[in-house]
Design brief:
13 helices, 5-stranded mixed β-sheet, about 400 residues
Length: about 400
C-alpha cells in the first residue's frame, strides 16, 4: 500500500510548525467547549427557587390557571417530551409541556434538577414560575404556534431572569471561531517573532534577507550551519528562534567570553578595524566570517535591532571584500583559520569536523540555489535612512529558492 508523507516544511524547506498550529487550535477549542459546558448554567439566584429540585411540599400545577396563581409549582412530564418536543428560540431550548387540562405551555428547564418518579419514563420537573412576555416580544418560533400552545408567557424552571443559551448551540457557534482564531494567532505571532517559518507566504519570513547586503552576509555564513539542527541558507540567522538554536548561540558567545551585546559589538569592531588597517589577508577570512556570524547571533537572540545589524554587517563585509577577490579565495583562507583553531583546541559548536565543513560547502556548491552564485562584489552599502536598501540580488535568490529539501 502506498504511503504518503505530509511535509511539515514550507517550500524553502524550513520548519513551519503548521501541524502544531492545528493541534493547538484543536486543544484550545476542546478547552473552550469544556468551559462552556461548565459555565453555561449559572444556577438560580438565592431568592429565586426556579430551577431547584422540587420537594413533596411543592404544589403540582395541572392547568394554566393553577400555573398563573400558585406562584411556585412543579409539573410532571415524560422523557419523550424532554427528548423530542423542543423549540429552539433566541439561542435557548424551550420544551413543550402538555398539562392534564389539555393545555400546553413552553418551559425553560434546568435538566440537572429533574427527578425520577416511581413510574418509568415519568419525571418531576424543577420548581418553576410563570413569566409573562411583553406584548409582541415572544420569540417568532413560539408565537407561530399560538393555535396549539399558550404564547402569553413561559414557565421558568431554569432559574435565570432571561433565557440561558443552550450549551450545545453555544459550543457549535464558538468552536469554529476559537479553532480558526487560535491557528491564526499562533501563525501570526510565531512567524513575526521568528519562532518558525511561514507555511504559505514564505517570502514574508522576517529572518530571510531583506536586502542585498544581508543576502551576501547570509551566503558568507551559509556553510556554518549544519543540518539537522540548523536550517541554513538563505536564512540570515541560519535558523529560527527555537530554544535549541538560541542555546547554541548563547554557548558560542560564552565560549568566546562574550555575554552581552556591547561586548560582542566591541569584539566585532576590534577584528574589523584590525583587518581594515593592514594589507595582510592571511587569517582575515576566519575572523571576519566569525564576526558576521556573531552579529547574526545577536539579531537571532534579539540583542541587536535590524538597522544596527545592517550597519555593522556593512562595515565587516566591505573589509572582507577588500581582503579577498572571490568566494574560492575567501573559503580557502577561512579553512586555514578553522584548522588552526581546531589545533589550538578552540571549541566548535556550529560544525564538528573539517570533513563535515568541506562536505557542507560541496553540498551548497552543488545546489541550483547555491549561496556562491551571489556575486562576490555585491554592493554592501548600508542604508542609513533605515530603508531596506538594494534588493536586486535577494529577489533573484528568493525566487530561485522554491524547492523542497
Amino acid at each position: 500500500m502506498t504511503r504518503y508523507k505530509i511535509s511539515n516544511k514550507n517550500s524553502y524547506g524550513f520548519l513551519d510548525c503548521f501541524f502544531q498550529s492545528l493541534l493547538l487550535g484543536a486543544a484550545v477549542m476542546v478547552l473552550c467547549s469544556l468551559l462552556v459546558e461548565l459555565s453555561a448554567y449559572r444556577g438560580p439566584a438565592s431568592d429565586d427557587p426556579c430551577g431547584t429540585e422540587a420537594t413533596w411540599k411543592t404544589p403540582v400545577a395541572e392547568s394554566l390557571d393553577e400555573i398563573k396563581t400558585q406562584g411556585d409549582f412543579t409539573l410532571f412530564t415524560t422523557g419523550t417530551v424532554l427528548k423530542d418536543d423542543t423549540i429552539e428560540a433566541g439561542g435557548a431550548v424551550y420544551y413543550r409541556i402538555p398539562l392534564p387540562s389539555g393545555e400546553q405551555v413552553v418551559a425553560l428547564i434546568n435538566l440537572k434538577s429533574l427527578q425520577e418518579t416511581g413510574t418509568i419514563g415519568i419525571y418531576r420537573l424543577p420548581v418553576g414560575r410563570w413569566r409573562e412576555w411583553e406584548e409582541g416580544s415572544a420569540p417568532p418560533s413560539i408565537a407561530a404556534l399560538s393555535d396549539a400552545i399558550n404564547t402569553s408567557g413561559y414557565v421558568d424552571m431554569l432559574g435565570a431572569s432571561s433565557p440561558a443559551p443552550d450549551r450545545r448551540t453555544l459550543r457549535r457557534a464558538i468552536e469554529p471561531f476559537v479553532f480558526l482564531g487560535t491557528i491564526l494567532l499562533h501563525r501570526v505571532l510565531g512567524t513575526r517573532r521568528g519562532w518558525f517559518a511561514p507555511a504559505f507566504f514564505v517570502k514574508q519570513d522576517p529572518l530571510l534577507p531583506r536586502n542585498d547586503l544581508e543576502c551576501w552576509c547570509a551566503a558568507v555564513s551559509a556553510h556554518h550551519y549544519l543540518p539537522p539542527v540548523w536550517e541554513g541558507w538563505p536564512l540570515l540567522t541560519g535558523g529560527h528562534r527555537r530554544q535549541r538554536i538560541k542555546a547554541l548561540c548563547r554557548k558560542h558567545m560564552a565560549d568566546r567570553c562574550l555575554f552581552d551585546a556591547d561586548q560582542c559589538i566591541r569584539e566585532v569592531r576590534k577584528l574589523t578595524d584590525r583587518w581594515a588597517g593592514t594589507l595582510e589577508t592571511a587569517g582575515a577570512g576566519w575572523e571576519l566570517s566569525l564576526s558576521i556570524q556573531l552579529l547574526e547571533e545577536l539579531y537571532l537572540l534579539k540583542m541587536l535591532d535590524r538597522n544596527s545589524l545592517d550597519q555593522e554587517l556593512s562595515r565587516v563585509g566591505r573589509v572582507l571584500q577588500r581582503c579577498f577577490s572571490s568566494w574560492e579565495e575567501f573559503l580557502a583562507d577561512e579553512e586555514k583559520g578553522f584548522l588552526l583553531a581546531c589545533k589550538e583546541g578552540e571549541r566548535m559548536i556550529l560544525w564538528n569536523t573539517p570533513g563535515a565543513r568541506r562536505e557542507m560547502i560541496l553540498h551548497l556548491k552543488s545546489q541550483p540555489y547555491s549561496p556562491y552564485f551571489v556575486p562576490w562584489y555585491t554592493d554592501l552599502t548600508w542604508a542609513p535612512d533605515g530603508s531596506s536598501g538594494e534588493r536586486t540580488i535577494v529577489n533573484e535568490v528568493l525566487t530561485k529558492q522554491f524547492v523542497l529539501r
